[in-house]
Amino acid sequence: MAVDTTAQSTTWTWVDGDWHEGNPPLIGPRSHAMWLGSTVFDGARWFENVAPDLDLHCQRVNRSAEALLMKPTMTAEAIEALAWEGIKRFDGKTAIYVKPMYWAEHGGYMGVPADPESTRFALCLFETPMIAPSGFSVTVSPFRRPTIECMPTNAKAGCLYPNNARAVLEARSRGFDNCLVRDMLGNIAETGTSNIFMVRDGEVFTPAPNGTFLSGITRSRTIALLRAKGMTVTEKTLTIDDFMAADEIFSTGNHSKVVPVIRIEDRELQAGPVARTARDLYWEWAHA
């Protein structure tokens, strides 16, 4: 039975000089991206008439393409201008995900590496609401984050996400919303979908970037805002025990920005004051 490939929400995509509504067919069975995974993307957000750090997301997608040895074909400034052009095609009632993408059409030596000269670009915008800031539950995943020697962890690459997906699905099969994912040494790296923070005795902690997870743009923005508020934010190696003993836990990520964790394993948590402060600071900065 044929799968319905129509877009699941209002969607506009710019590719090869034109805007297309819906889910245009862009790759085929011979496309390198389809069978060998040469895809990178980034994700910005438009909501409440603002698109925080859109410029930084546009810059990062080009760095991700280079990390997968592809050749960016658009400047970050051109991508940003296109994004604002695309945003005007929506009615403004629902939050928008802004997703610039690169992929390789052809392969190089024996078909395995991407041919950088065949790099293609598309910019896809689609409606998707943010999750409620009421909070979510986490468990510890049995799956691990790879190292830079194993996978291109210095890029926002599509090939990294099946590992995140199986971590999330395994957690949800056990009744949790999401999960904490460890690095190869057993220390906490992130959740299955976002960066992670914890609070103990008024001090904020977050895993130090160690090459196993993407140090997110919203993560960096949140750290800067909390520090400007006079709070101590420490990046360090953190264990499962650290999180189990935390006073608060919250996540940061592009999809829903700042969201508290309200249960870790069988321990209930409250959406605490630091998470609320972080979210309020982010919203205030975004709308300034």
From TrEMBL:
<dbReference type="InterPro" id="IPR050571">
    <property type="entry name" value="Class-IV_PLP-Dep_Aminotrnsfr"/>
</dbReference>
<dbReference type="GO" id="GO:0005829">
    <property type="term" value="C:cytosol"/>
</dbReference>
<comment type="similarity">
    <text>Belongs to the class-IV pyridoxal-phosphate-dependent aminotransferase family.</text>
</comment>
<comment type="pathway">
    <text>Amino-acid biosynthesis; L-leucine biosynthesis; L-leucine from 3-methyl-2-oxobutanoate: step 4/4.</text>
</comment>
<dbReference type="InterPro" id="IPR036038">
    <property type="entry name" value="Aminotransferase-like"/>
</dbReference>
<protein>
    <recommendedName>
        <fullName>Probable branched-chain-amino-acid aminotransferase</fullName>
        <ecNumber>2.6.1.42</ecNumber>
    </recommendedName>
</protein>
<keyword id="KW-0032">Aminotransferase</keyword>
<dbReference type="InterPro" id="IPR043131">
    <property type="entry name" value="BCAT-like_N"/>
</dbReference>
<keyword id="KW-0100">Branched-chain amino acid biosynthesis</keyword>
<keyword id="KW-0808">Transferase</keyword>
<dbReference type="GO" id="GO:0009082">
    <property type="term" value="P:branched-chain amino acid biosynthetic process"/>
</dbReference>
<keyword id="KW-0028">Amino-acid biosynthesis</keyword>
<dbReference type="InterPro" id="IPR001544">
    <property type="entry name" value="Aminotrans_IV"/>
</dbReference>
<dbReference type="Pfam" id="PF01063">
    <property type="entry name" value="Aminotran_4"/>
</dbReference>
<keyword id="KW-0663">Pyridoxal phosphate</keyword>
<dbReference type="InterPro" id="IPR043132">
    <property type="entry name" value="BCAT-like_C"/>
</dbReference>
<dbReference type="InterPro" id="IPR018300">
    <property type="entry name" value="Aminotrans_IV_CS"/>
</dbReference>
<comment type="pathway">
    <text>Amino-acid biosynthesis; L-isoleucine biosynthesis; L-isoleucine from 2-oxobutanoate: step 4/4.</text>
</comment>
<dbReference type="GO" id="GO:0004084">
    <property type="term" value="F:branched-chain-amino-acid transaminase activity"/>
</dbReference>
<comment type="function">
    <text>Acts on leucine, isoleucine and valine.</text>
</comment>
